[in-house]
TrEMBL record:
It comes from Talaromyces atroroseus. The keyword Ubl conjugation does not apply. It comes from the Eukaryota. The lineage of its organism: Eukaryota, Fungi, Dikarya, Ascomycota, Pezizomycotina. The keyword Hydrolase does not apply. It is a multi-pass membrane protein. Coiled coil: none annotated. One of its GO terms (cellular component) is membrane. It holds the Pfam family SLAC1. This is Malic enzyme. Residues 272-523 form the Malic enzyme NAD-binding domain. One of its GO terms (molecular function) is malate transmembrane transporter activity. Its cofactor is Mn(2+).
Length: 972
């Protein structure tokens, strides 16, 4: 087979795998194990000689033997247990066996056999698989996710919300993920099954001494919502690229939870969107065969639970899209019936949020007119009848014949499962309509002219397309596109007597077509974040296929055992087993152009500029200098200008290359908060220009700086007002749970006071006073706003504990407002003394003093400013210490989870802390304390060392493709 030009992509699983294990340890890890297929050279290299029989077999031979073992099992539950055991032993063999016998094994690894396995989970338990989270340990969720040892980054998470089967429902997650791999080619090591254990109301489980889950009644309401919310946000932090698949959340929660998160993250609810997508595909085919237009179709949905309303919602989206009408108008073409009968608006609070949009006006159904299914069918004369009621026999002969009186080809979908709960048997429907009905069912039946609505032909392809496109969210149009792609492969399009849906045996090819449709729609809507998606149809298909995992053995390459990590300067720092997070070599083979790398630059990169500018200001103000230090400061100032211009141009390139990127940057839950760093970088340039440019330039510089100051003041007000308004409007706080970063939109206003205190000294008196007043006003505004955020931040730390390691450097942001406010107060008070020494004189009588007994108001202001500044400084010192201890505590040597890989958040350790050192310098100068000033000199050295370390780490990360790389943009 010719090599694909896309085999360099990170998900294109080819080439050797690095393996750090050997001997029996290696054979117990399913990801690496090959069993009897280990070749001679690998047996020798990995110390497997004597641990395996001498015969070496091919994967095909292993599959044949495994199938014989499978077939010998006495019943389906035993076969299910056999497959679970094989999956835990040899990942490749499991999926190869499943792929070759998919149709036969489908009902064994999934419904209905999996239901029996779930009921017996605690009794059959051998080895855990997945992530178990319980509602009584919500504070540990982030730590648990951070401690997960995964061989690859996570792309696909299935989260279980089912209650009555308790913790055993994890098997649904694992089964779903097995299907996504077998059917959609999603790498099994890039998946994570999760169960949210909220307790159970199942008395049998609660009374079972072997039950492994929480022994308590199922939590509901706000407590349940908080648990789900905590997990979603923690998962988004730990696995920022992950697509989340909600499974079995039940009628009261499914629609509500999907609506809450679908605009925030790429997520999918199988009961609502999965069933709806496949049903819509069957409907599209059925309407094509029966020659009925979407604009004219009438649909009755019997059963208005999460599945029924999900299907109705999907269909109404399709009608609205295809018929080009409002969704509310499309919903008028659908009649939903639940236990009380037809849904009516008068039923009020009895309706769920998902049912309410489909409720009909009471005046459309006069008193005495029946609300039961037969009455509705007689009145509506539907083209389509869908059943999700789990009421066996609900579609009676009378109802089906009544429907057939009015439409030539009744489209009937009895979708309830298992088989015994179907509304009607396909053969009966065929007989009652004399072979004219178009039928799709939810479970398999003996041969008849019908299709089986299996969600498994849809959700793997939707997930694959979402992952590969890195879509920001799964839109309605993307799901409709998936339905159309499914319908396009229906055999009924070629022969009306054939099924309305493609067969599950062809699911691998179907998933390629579905994924292609999803990717194309994501690109069309501007939701795709992946770079380099081919525009050509054939190339796009090849691009997708190249990234689909195939169950085949790859050669193993010996990976050296953990050694002493080397610092980027070449000096030994710490043993990886005891200290920082292991730096796994990044071996992406993805080819990314320089332009595409530069387009990864985000607003947060301005933090490098402002940190560099902060060092330049600090070097100029440090009290103890050696010859040439000012020159070094000028170099930092010039470097700041270069960095600022470079980041500005890269952002311009990004926004011009993809016009929607600007809006997306403000909608991003992390990047949106860092837009203000651009103004903070400008502030350091203004101050640097004053302190380094005054001696070299003429009076024009002071005029220019005065104009720039007022522009900056206006921009900082606009940034604080409109950026915060936009964050409120978009409910961004719910997507960024770490509150301290919410300081950033108001932070530029707090630099206005610092700028005013610096540039006022060289301004004329009549210009200096307005500058100082403006500085005081904006400083006070920014500080008061930050004060409320500090309260939320403190509450966060008290309630949820320390943030995860990747966020801990951001704790240094809390040092900034206290420090810069203290710095600005003293600076502006000193300028008031210099500029206005004779105004507002206060005299007092003191017989013991023969000299001048008058003081200026500005002198008193300086004393008060210094006292307040010292108070503010102590708060900054407190937050500095908390941040430093928290950072150190994350190191493994102190029992922490390990520090996170290099990201832009580490620059938070520079700029806010320069404000702290500068405030300390000012206080030392006012108090005329040499001891304090010597401390600040030491702090300056340490701060420069931090800058050098973070700068070197950033250069190394960029060079080693850990930053400015598409796969890592979220983590930066």
């Amino acid at each position: 087979m010719p090599q694909s030009k896309f085999e360099h992509l990170p998900r294109a699983a080819s080439g050797p795998i690095e393996c750090p294990y050997e001997g029996t340890t290696l054979m117990h890890i399913a990801y690496y194990n090959k069993g009897s297929a280990f070749p001679e050279d690998e047996r020798k290299a990995f110390k497997l000689e004597g641990l395996l029989p001498p015969g070496i077999q091919s994967l095909e031979e292993q599959v044949e033997r495994a199938y014989q073992q499978y077939a010998s099992r006495p019943d389906d539950l035993a076969k299910n247990t056999f497959m679970a055991s094989m999956k835990a032993q040899n990942e490749v063999l499991y999926y190869k066996l499943l792929q070759e016998h998919l149709k036969e094994m489908f009902s064994v690894i999934y419904t209905p056999t999996e239901a029996e396995a779930i009921q017996n989970y605690s009794r059959l338990f051998r080895k855990p698989e997945g992530c178990f989270l319980n509602i009584n340990a919500q504070d540990k969720i982030e730590g648990i996710l951070n401690n997960l040892e995964v061989e690859e980054d996570i792309d696909y998470i299935v989260i279980l919300g089912i209650g009555d089967q308790g913790v055993g429902a994890i098997l649904i997650s694992t089964a779903k993920l097995a299907i996504t791999t077998a059917c959609g080619g999603i790498h099994p090591s890039r998946q994570l099954p999760v169960v949210l254990d909220c307790g159970t109301n199942n008395e049998k489980l609660l009374n079972d001494p072997l039950y492994l889950g929480l022994r308590q009644r199922r939590a509901r309401g706000k407590e349940y919502d908080a648990f789900v919310d905590h997990f979603v946000h923690a998962a988004k932090k730990r696995f920022p690229r992950a697509y989340i698949h909600f499974e079995d959340f039940g009628l009261p929660n499914a629609k509500r939870i999907l609506d809450k998160y679908k605009q925030q993250i790429p997520c999918f609810n199988d009961d609502i969107q999965g069933t709806g997508c496949v049903t819509l595909a069957a409907l599209i085919t059925g309407l094509h065969v029966s020659k009925v237009k979407f604009d004219d179709v009438r649909i009755v949905c019997f059963g208005a639970g999460s599945a029924g309303t999900g299907i109705a919602d999907q269909i109404s989206d399709a009608i609205a899209t295809e018929a080009q009408k409002e969704k509310s108008e499309a919903m008028k073409q659908i009649w939903c019936i639940d236990k009380p009968g037809l849904l009516l608006k008068s039923q009020g609070d009895k309706l769920t949020p998902a049912q309410t949009p489909f409720a009909k006006d009471d005046n459309e159904w006069p008193d005495g007119e029946g609300l039961d299914l037969l009455s509705v069918v007689k009145r509506v004369k539907p083209h389509v009848l869908i059943g999700t009621s789990t009421q066996p026999g609900a579609f009676s002969e009378e109802i089906i014949k009544e429907m057939a009186k009015h439409v030539e080809n009744p489209i009937v979908f009895p979708l309830s499962n298992p088989t015994k709960l179907h509304e009607a048997k396909p053969q009966d429907i065929t007989d009652w309509t004399k072979g004219q009905a178009l039928i799709a069912t939810g479970s398999p039946f003996p041969p008849a002219k019908y299709s089986n609505v299996e969600k498994e032909i849809a959700f793997p392809g939707i997930g694959l397309g979402s992952i590969l496109s890195r879509t920001r969210r799964l839109s309605v149009k993307m799901v409709v596109a998936a339905s159309k792609a499914l319908a396009a492969k229906a055999p009924a399009l070629q022969d009306a007597t054939k099924p309305l849906l493609p067969d599950v045996e062809d699911v691998r090819e179907i998933s390629v077509n579905v994924a292609k449709a999803v990717v194309q729609q994501a690109v069309q809507e501007g939701l795709a974040q992946e770079q380099g998606i081919p525009g050509n149809e054939d190339e796009l298909e090849e691009w997708i296929r190249a990234q689909m995992w195939e169950p085949k053995y790859r050669s193993l390459k010996k990976k050296p055992a953990p050694k002493i990590l080397l610092h980027m300067f070449g000096t030994k720092i710490i043993n990886e087993s005891a200290g920082f997070e292991t730096m796994k070599p990044f071996t992406s083979r993805q080819k990314v152009s320089l332009k595409d790398r530069l387009c990864q630059v985000s607003w947060g990169w301005f933090s490098i500029s402002m940190a560099t500018g902060g060092i330049a200001i600090l070097l100029k103000n440090t009290p103890h200098k050696f010859h040439g230090l000012d020159t070094i400061g000028k170099i930092f100032f010039i470097l700041n200008l270069v960095i600022f211009i470079t980041v500005f141009l890269c952002l311009g390139l990004r926004f011009c290359t993809k016009p929607s990127a600007l809006r997306e940057s403000f909608d991003h839950p992390n990047e949106s908060y860092f837009a203000g760093t651009c103004l903070l970088a400008v502030a350091t340039i203004i101050i640097g220009s004053e302190i380094y440019g005054t001696d070299a330039c003429g009076p024009w510089l002071q005029v220019a700086l005065r104009i720039v100051f007022w522009i900056y003041a206006a921009c900082s007000i606009l940034e604080a007002l409109f950026h915060n308004w936009y964050l409120y409007h978009r409910s961004m706080a719910s997507r960024q749970p770490f509150p301290i970063v919410r300081l950033l939109p108001s932070f530029p206003a707090m630099l206005a006071g610092t700028i005013a205190s610096v540039i006022a000294s060289n301004q004329p008196r009549n210009q200096a006073l307005p500058i100082i007043i403006c500085g005081v006003t904006l400083q006070g505004f920014g500080y008061i706003v930050s004060f409320f955020i500090y309260a939320e931040y403190t509450f966060f730390l008290n309630k949820k504990g320390l943030p995860s390691p990747p966020e801990r450097p951001e704790m240094f942001i809390a040092v900034g407002p206290w420090s810069f406010t203290a710095l600005a107060l003293i600076g502006m008070a000193e300028e008031a003394i210099e500029k206005f020494p004779s105004r507002y004189i206060i005299s007092y009588a003191d017989p013991s003093f023969t000299g001048d007994s008058s003081v200026t108001a500005s002198t008193i202001v300086l004393v008060l400013a210094t006292m307040v500044a010292i108070f503010l400084w102590t708060m900054a010192f407190f937050h500095l210490c908390v941040a430093i201890i928290s950072l150190v505590a994350a190191c493994r040597v102190f029992g922490g989870p390990g520090m996170a890989a290099m990201s832009l958040t580490y620059w938070s350790m520079v700029f806010p802390n320069t404000g702290f050192v500068l405030a300390t310098v000012r206080i030392g100068q006012v108090l005329q304390s040499e001891a304090v000033l010597w401390v600040t000199s030491v702090l300056t050295v340490l701060q420069v060392a931090v800058w050098l370390t973070v700068a070197a780490a950033t250069i190394w990360a960029v060079g080693s493709r850990r930053m400015l790389w598409p796969e890592h943009m979220e983590k930066e």
